[in-house]
């Protein structure tokens, strides 16, 4: 996670086979917890050309809740 002027930006690694049904479930969670339209989720580039999603959230508390719910790998807080 990286703090930005608008809140927190996270890069979420996408496995080679994609996220499958997990992506709509993540979006539903974000809609419920953050409110539709209060976050930005788009394709991004991960380290060394890997596929990633870029998630921009307005507050760190929500970003930490997202990590707790969805992330199963290494997380760096900056």
Could you explain how this protein is built, in words?
- By secondary structure, this protein is α+β, with helices and mostly antiparallel strands.
- It is 29% helix and 31% strand.
- The protein is built from 2 helices and 4 strands; from the N terminus they run ββαββα.
- Strands 1-2-4-3 form a 4-stranded antiparallel sheet.
- The termini are close together.
Keywords for this entry:
78 residues; alpha+beta; Alpha-Beta Plaits; 31% strand
Number of E-state strands: 4
Give the H and E element order: EEHEEH
The name of the CATH architecture is: 2-Layer Sandwich
| Oligomerization state | single chain
Shape descriptor reads globular
Tell me the layout of helices and strands:
Blueprint: E1 2-4, E2 7-13, H1 22-33, E3 39-45, E4 51-57, H2 60-70
Brief sketch in words of this structure:
With 78 residues, the protein is of the alpha+beta class. The chain has 2 helices and 4 strands.
